[in-house]
Amino acid sequence: MSAELDRKIADFVAYAYRHAPGVKRWLDAAEVKPEEIQGEADLARVPVLTKDKMVELQAQDPPFGGFLAVPITQVTHLFFSPGPLYEPAGQETELIDTAEPLFRQAGFDEEGIALNTLSYHLVPAGLMIDGVLQRVGCTVVPVGVGNADLQVKMMQDFGVTGYVGTPSWLATLLKKADEMEIPAAEMALKNVLLTAEPLSASMRTMFMEEYGLQVTNAYATAELGFLAYDQEGQTALRLLEGPLIQVVDRDTGQTVGPGDVGEVVVTNFNRTYPLIRFGTGDLAMNVDPAPGKSRQGERAIILVGRVGEAVKVRGMFVHPNQLAFALSRFPIAGYRAIVRRPQLRDEFILQVVPAPEAGEVKELADEIRQAVRDVCRVRLDHLEFVDELPEEGPKILDERRWD
Fold first, then answer.
1. Lower CB count within 10 Å: N or C terminus of the chain?
2. Residue 348: which H helix or E strand, with range?
């Protein structure tokens, strides 16, 4: 942890407390004085501000819950994001500053013409990306969402070299170009930055091998902009420098250790709309090569799902996506985990339906146990092979009773 970062955090918290009434109320309610926050280590004293709580605060004190830290006359844009949440934007450039190195690394530059397919309507995504593309020197084609035929024609006519948007919409455009019998030689597209939805391995392979595209996969949120990325097809996403990104235990607020799962929490350093320890609702595994010594840009996260879908087992969050990943290399037709508490300790049970062609899958029991332990960080108490499981219902069934 650098002294420079600690000073930045202390100054930002003090500023937000003085200028944003909502921040003052939030810290006062937690009995936290701004002068007690002198660096990253002290931030655990500040409760995580969830999206649901921000929705509640905005309803109590519209429109921004008291988190606007400047006169509204200094606000340049007013956005609306799912939640529902209102988001003000001013003259600050932090989001663009953070994203600029990512876009340059993804191949966007002054010689490029970029198709921006994220929405310019109500939400901040389209305009924010527009600003980044202009910063790196690209000519922007601001198409937003929809009308595949027109977008493909514009790509062909303008010689579009870059694409920003979701993987699914890119696949739609490429399929449409094939249907329109546009030769690949007439399409100049080479760099794509994909975000807003998961990128599957098969789709990534298709973009690269069938269409010869350079693929960058990026993680971003509407409120906080770009946070992490991958260009090598890895599950781990390298963190960007910029806002302070932490992976924290939702119960204690403390940063989790390497290999552990927690919520992605961000402090944005935005002096128009200061958010301190804002919870994204995304669960991630913390990847840290040198705990206590590494810079943020040297760390990574592996996204495992949303907070509401995870179950805590013996102090560790376990998400259905983690189980799916752990079991993906085994011949399994279905699975379900069950959490029980017959006495004082959680019991973790995995039920598995072998695939028809699996053969003696039971011989792989030890490997399955180890894979679950490696990925989920929780040891199985029982592994049961069953003939069938319900097609619907949760993949992790919590049968514990707390009354």
1. C
2. strand 347-354
